[in-house]
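Recap for those who missed Tuesday's class. We walked through two folding examples back to back. For each one, the amino acid string is listed first and its predicted structure tokens come directly after. Nothing is annotated here on purpose, so try labeling regions yourself before you check the end of the notes.
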Amino acid sequence: MNIKSIGIAASILLASTSAFAQSSTVTGAAGGAATGAIVGGPAGAAVGGIVGGVAGSLLEPPPPKVVTYVQQVPTPSERVVVKEKIVVGQPLPTTVVVTPVPYEPKYAYAIVNEQRVIVEPSSRKVIQVVQ
């Protein structure tokens, strides 16, 4: 096979894989590894798996019932204010008390700087700022 044929075959493979990746719902480590492998071969798969695992775990939104619960929970009389900006993916300061969502132990919430936030309880990382 000559170089031109290999280039054409690789282009077709990349185009079909990219189209599949756009329509797929694979996220996290698996999605990152697949994308990394396409772009950078085996080394790209390893790096993509790590990056995809982190990004996939941060970007996965909580179920709608958790968001609704956090939206409807009464605002406490004592306001919590911190100087730090609340950022998705970053942990809340240790001074902020997080409250578990009763029926979803994977999630907790807090109301900080008049913002309702959903967090991952063990790491305290902000998953979503509820509007």
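Example two. Treat it independently of the first, because the proteins are unrelated.
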Amino acid sequence: MNAPNAPLFLVYGYSGAGKSTTFTNVGQALGRGFTVYDMDLIVVNEQYQEACNNWLLIAYINYLCGNHTILFGSVPYGYNLELSEHILLFNPIHKLLLHCNESTRIERLTARGGWSEELIHKGLAASRDLYTSALDSNIPIIDTTNTPVQDVAHQIKEWVLSKV
């Protein structure tokens, strides 16, 4: 089962970047022909990789039905698409990074609760790594620090439409 022309859209970023806040707005903005998912919604017992595998199958079924899929997730921390055997179903994989400054991330994670100071510091380092990697790979980046959710959704919509 190989679909060399099945595109996949991935909006990723470390926790606190605004993925869960934005994904429903993107779905509403894009409308028919696009399905938008927050990858965290089907995680059971912290089995992120199993959920990732399932999301890729869902995305492929969407493709077979004529729809484009946009996944919002913490990739690769939590979900590692490259470890899934189903990744071979997709080409191209379009990626966009959501990012915010460190003080905003600290505020967001603290307000969320359940984030120790140590976890927040690890998250800040991981988000810096994602940002640097995106820059090095010419992956588009949207800064959500002071950008209203509707504007972020509009930018993502324009990015997706530029790729279809």
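Answers for example two:
Residues 8-163 form a domain with the Rossmann fold fold (CATH 3.40.50.300).
The chain has five helices and five strands.
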